[in-house]
Design the sequence.
């Protein structure tokens, strides 16, 4: 696990859990405990490990190993498998009936990959520097206990009429952070294709965001849709002054944010096309932020999803675990400051339930995830609709379909990656970018000193 008393601590990153893991060693790796040497292709299972863990060290510092079939974007619409290459040590740990592959490496090397995996390594230097600082801050906040995390992957309160659930990073067993969107994207050296990524980490080494002397839980999302959400509306009911409401444009431009918790204002906002840093179709900028699989999502600022009655009723049943029958309506109950739904009521012919928070809404209304919970609902009616077990409702009262019109991609808390890319493109420094998205925070250069003092 992490070395809490080093000026350059290491971090253990969980890469893949499976019954069998296939690894290609491009250089020689050694087990100091068993004196075994590994070259070429190997298959590992729990039977391969004497005891609970097998740790393999590169014979030379530049040693590389490749793991096959690593799952990325798990549970999201871009989920896929790929082979990924890594520096550092490989730990193979027993877990349940299988094993987990863990990559142990210095934090600064980890960050080089994170900022290249969260966005393109070809992004501008100032954008990469901003992301290096927030990625380092988030990691240190989690490990030192300054960040929030759940006892499990989620926390939930549920009654017959309401399900309120929020998802956050849980305490991982056997490693510090995972490699996917649940923590921060980490895809080894596979995407470190530009020296800018290395330079961004090196030039900000040890820099973290702090607020009143505490490491900031520096959240970020792909596209805020023009408005920032607050922490407590997405996760635990805790307020962070540096994760507050705001508009993705500088205040001096004279465009105040409407009160988007008011339904009428939210409808106008979502149906509109407001000026924002993240409101861009500049492909040069988008390529800096979006990797190949992300570029398959072109309509991130404003988007539309259409469902037939059959589709929406089957999705809600599958994702919620409850049979709502035919869906009659999806009603906004509470919106956050960015217009994102915190609670929504699903009314069906068999059941009515209010659900929240934002990610639970996104998961319930899509077989993967809606881009965000900042959406409005339009119902469609047709005389041709086929209904089942709903004799109490004339077919004319049952929508034939639903159209969801939405804004943004992700929870909208903290840094907006596409907005930050536009700021960098327009000449803003990484310090100006961070001041915009985390108002009131400061940059401190003593990340590992503070990390050691809190261990």
Sequence:
């Amino acid at each position: 696990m992490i070395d809490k008393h080093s000026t350059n601590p290491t971090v253990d990153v969980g890469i893949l859990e499976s019954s069998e893991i296939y690894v290609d060693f491009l250089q020689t790796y050694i087990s100091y405990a068993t004196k075994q040497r590994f070259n070429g292709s190997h298959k590992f299972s729990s039977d391969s490990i004497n005891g609970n863990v097998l740790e393999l060290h590169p014979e030379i510092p530049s040693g590389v190993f490749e793991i096959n079939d690593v799952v990325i974007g798990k549970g999201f619409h871009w989920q896929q498998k790929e082979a990924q290459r890594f520096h550092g040590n490989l730990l193979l740990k027993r877990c349940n009936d299988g094993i987990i592959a863990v990559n142990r490496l210095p934090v600064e090397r980890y960050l080089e990959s994170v900022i290249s995996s969260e966005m393109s390594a070809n992004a501008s230097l100032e954008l990469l520097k901003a992301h290096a600082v927030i990625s380092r801050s988030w990691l240190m906040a989690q490990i030192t206990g300054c960040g929030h995390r759940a006892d499990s992957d989620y926390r939930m309160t549920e009654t017959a009429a309401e399900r309120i659930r929020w998802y956050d990073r849980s305490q991982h067993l056997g490693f510090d952070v995972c490699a996917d969107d649940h923590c921060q994207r980490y895809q080894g050296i596979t995407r470190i294709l530009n020296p800018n990524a290395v330079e961004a980490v090196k030039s900000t080494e040890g820099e973290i965001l702090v607020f009143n002397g505490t490491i900031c839980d520096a959240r970020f999302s792909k596209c805020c849709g023009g408005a920032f959400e607050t922490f407590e509306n997405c996760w635990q009911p805790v307020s962070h002054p540096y994760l507050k409401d705001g508009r993705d444009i500088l205040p001096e431009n004279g465009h105040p944010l409407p009160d988007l918790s008011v339904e009428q204002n939210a409808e106008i906002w979502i149906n509109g096309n407001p000026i924002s840093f993240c409101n861009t179709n500049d492909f040069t900028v988008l390529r800096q932020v979006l990797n190949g699989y992300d570029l398959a999502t072109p309509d991130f600022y404003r988007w539309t999803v259409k469902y037939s009655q059959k589709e929406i009723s089957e999705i809600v049943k599958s994702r919620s675990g409850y049979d709502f029958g035919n869906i009659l309506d999806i009603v906004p109950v509470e919106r956050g400051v960015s217009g994102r739904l915190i609670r929504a009521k699903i009314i069906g012919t068999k059941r009515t339930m209010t659900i929240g928070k934002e990610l639970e809404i996104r998961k319930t209304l899509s077989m993967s995830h809606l881009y965000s919970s900042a959406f409005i609902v339009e119902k469609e009616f047709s005389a041709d609709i086929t209904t089942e077990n709903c004799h109490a409702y004339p077919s004319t009262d049952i929508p034939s379909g639903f159209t969801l019109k939405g804004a943004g991609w992700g929870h909208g808390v903290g840094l907006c990656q596409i907005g930050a890319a536009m700021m960098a493109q327009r000449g803003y420094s990484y310090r100006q970018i961070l001041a915009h998205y985390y108002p009131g925070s400061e940059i401190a250069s003593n990340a590992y000193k503070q990390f050691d003092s809190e261990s």
